[in-house]
Amino acid sequence: MALTIRPVTSDDVELICEQRERLFRESNSPGRTEEVIRTQTTHFRPWLVQRLRDGSYFGYMLEDAGKPVAGIGLMLIEWPPGPTHPTSDKRGYVLNVFVEPSHRRQGLAAKLMALADSEFVRRGATYAILNATKMGRPLYEKLGWTATNEMAKTLR
Amino acid sequence: MALTIRPVTSDDVELICEQRERLFRESNSPGRTEEVIRTQTTHFRPWLVQRLRDGSYFGYMLEDAGKPVAGIGLMLIEWPPGPTHPTSDKRGYVLNVFVEPSHRRQGLAAKLMALADSEFVRRGATYAILNATKMGRPLYEKLGWTATNEMAKTLR
Q1: Helix, strand, or coil (residue B77)
Q2: Is ipTM beyond 0.95?
């Protein structure tokens, strides 16, 4: 493999949307029907266009001989200072971690996650969160991530 | 009890900071030392002042004969549209849910949580999150909240 790393750019909109859809499709979580996945993309795409442009969505692509084979999205989100980050009003958020099936189990996700850690620290965040798929969870645990006490409710 | 409900205002800064500190103190979570709790308040207070002023932190106080006995904080946070809220780029966030020990087990927290649901729906959010203390969790479960797949990491 001749792996290269590059930051995501505004030209990656469709690639990121596609990786995100495949991620949700593979997660096999209840409620993630094709209809829901497509609807979220319809709304996620213009949201992403704007945030790639203003730099609030950033991240990396790994390419093998010029072909994208893995990606990660990063954001800094505003959050009240609290015990998990007592002096800071932001936390890192990791999303859209995706590795092509052909390139799995070769450490690419771990490489992307290490890039995330450094990039967050460089930008002043001391605490980061993510939403884990069942498949991703063991890897994140190995890299020092732990489950939080977050709960959620869908409102009618 | 002569309970009345009122929205939080900019005059509630110290009351909210105090309820938040007591909440963290009671949670007995690892790492929530007095020093950490006080440090977060030092940073949370000015953060709160600004957000009460611009309306991005809102919520309610319950008063018993004019004395505040319970409180809840609410925010709308920007979030990428995804399977949990496919058409919306925001989610509700519930924080600082506190009931005075003298007034517990009388349904006050459930009343505040019902107000949160309606307020979020009124503002167009269809999905909400919170961080539960061990004490709060059974109540939230009874009200339809479930644990998410969130993971976190403290960065060095």
Answers
A1: strand
A2: yes
Alpha-carbon dihedral angle through residues A65, A71, A75, A81, given to the nearest 10 degrees: -120
Spatial CA neighbour of A20 closest among A4, A51, A42 = A42
Nearest residue on chain A to B36, alpha-carbon basis: A83
Looking at the predicted structure, is the pLDDT value of residue A55 above 80? yes
Name the DSSP class of B86: T
Task: Kindly report, residue by residue over A119-152, the tens digit of the pLDDT.
Answer: 999 999 999 999 999 999 999 999 999 999 999 9
- Residue B133, Cα to own-chain centre: how many angstroms? 11
Q: How many other CB atoms sit within 10 Å of the CB of residue A66?
A: 7
The answer to whether B86 touches A36, Cβ cutoff 8 Å, is yes
Q: Which residue of A has its CA nearest to B133?
A: A149
Closest CA to B125 of B90, B94, B93, B95: B90
